[in-house]
Amino acid sequence: MPTQQIQSLVERFTSHFETYQQSTYNETQTRREFIDPFFIALGWDVANEQGYAQAYKDVLHEDALKIGRATKAPDYSFRIGGLRKFFLEAKKPAILIKNNAEAAFQVRRYGWSAKLPLSILTNFAEFSVYDCRFKPAKTDEAATARIFYLKYTDYLEKWEELVGIFSREAILKGAFDKYIDSKTHKKGTAEVDTAFLTEIERWRDMLARNIALRNPVLSSRQLNFAVQQTIDRIIFLRICEDRGIEDYGRLLGLQNGPKIYTRLFQHFQEADERYNSGLFHFKAEKGRDDPDTLTPSLVIDDKILKDILKNLYYPDSPYEFSVLPADILGQVYEQFLGQVIRLTPAHRAVVEQKTEVKKAGGVYYTPTYIVDYIVKQTIGPLVHNQKLNKISHLKILDPACGSGSFLLGAYQFLLDWHNEHYQKNPVKWASGKNPRLYQISGGAWQLTLNERKRILLNNLYGVDIDPQAVEVTKLSLLLKVLENEQNLFPQLTLWKERVLPDLDNNIKCGNSLISNDFYQGQQLGLLDEETLYRINAFDWETEFAPILKAGGFDAV
Q1: pLDDT value at position 185?
Q2: Cα dihedral 470→476→477→480 (10° resolution)
Q3: How big is the CA angle at 449 (ends 445 and 454), to the nearest 5 degrees?
Q4: Closest Cα to residue 395, out of 457, 448, 452?
Q5: Around Cβ 262, how many Cβ atoms within 10 Å?
Q6: What is the pLDDT of residues 454-484, one digit of tens each?
Q7: Is the bond preceding residue 318 a cis peptide, omega within 30 degrees?
Q8: Residue 292 in 3-state DSSP?
Q9: Which residues contact 172 (CB under 8 A, 6 or more apart)?
Q10: Spatial distance between the Cα atoms of 118 and 96, rounded to a whole number of angstroms
Q11: Which end of the chain has less neighbouring CB within 10 Å, N or C?
């Protein structure tokens, strides 16, 4: 019986309380001997005894990889059907959590960044639940946003209440959601997408004004490109830091010393050698689009960059980028791209809403659950009972991809399909010269980086008339390639392999509704450069020639 298990845990903890309070009794022991059994009693398959694939495990245990003063990811992620429900951050009993503001800030950052309503902080001796809808701030006290607190001596008395909220069954029956609704306090809440949008809009405004001032020869189009690329590159590298792919704190360290942009751009150049993505493309290479020759010579004041970089790190930043969902980033950028930078006659930068957005009454982002439903109904029948070779030749197109929400959904669907297929015989698919799987800590199997790249390059294509949207789609997909990646360093260090795909042949810029025959019979001399740029006719026969010759796209 679960209550007997809890009684046994409480009695054992009480009997050896002084031992457990010593600093030598560590977090790993606490998790194994007390926290794991506690949640097993709540009905969670903590050890994955059901043998589910990684994507569908009840509980994900994250490696405690220390990066700076924070950890790479929360210790536990509790999920239903692969969807996160809440995080749990564990501490050893020697750390008293009731008044520990730093530990509370840490777990709230995780939950808030992942857009989860609640997260738990516990050392078994104490059990704290935080409302993660409140934006965390470094000045918050430990009690801020805390909505539930127990000591281990309360567990037996409060066990029915704990079961009624945090058990697996309670979540399946909706009791967890009802509990969240009962704790709703609108005052002080700020969702991560809204807050992050406000932050990058602030960056855009600062960068636009400063770059326009210090680089007076730039056109409006060049200014928009320079600002967007600078923001995208910083966000990409910062997310890579929190995922353990880049050295944590490297961007922050650029604050120390003069000529920050010169040193930041050196970082961008190194990223080109490491990642091979169009996001960092500064040298002419055979088979690739023209390199970026504009941003290498930019002048940006140190004060502006110091502000941006400082606010990306603990304790000034409330964001934990390792858990920031890809769809949240897409939602932020969808709103962000609704505005454009315009230059006044005096060459001052002004940010204003795009004309087409004004006419439409704003920007509307498709919710993730709708994306998932459409993807499942569209791609599901195409992969049903099909062999791997057939799936490898699927061509999926979003002709108005925006920030990439549907392509991200389709990519995740295909990643899950391949993972399930390979795990029917994991040893086979983890062998040979080109393995599709590798084993991560804890014994689970995961798609190799090369396989994730192959799926992306083989199957997914997009077009958008907005060049900034095209770059955001690429950014989102590249971050998705690196998501949960734990096997990157051998490729970077041993093989010197550039680890990301170049998506220029997959995600293209153009007006998918207007082809090149639009210009037939037109007096092109009457159309100025700006008009031609806005029309941006798209030549399908040229841009996707091999696909169209082979019969076209399978899903649009």
Answers
A1: 54
A2: 180
A3: 110
A4: 457
A5: 14
A6: 999 999 999 998 888 888 898 889 888 888 7
A7: no
A8: coil
A9: 80
A10: 20
A11: N
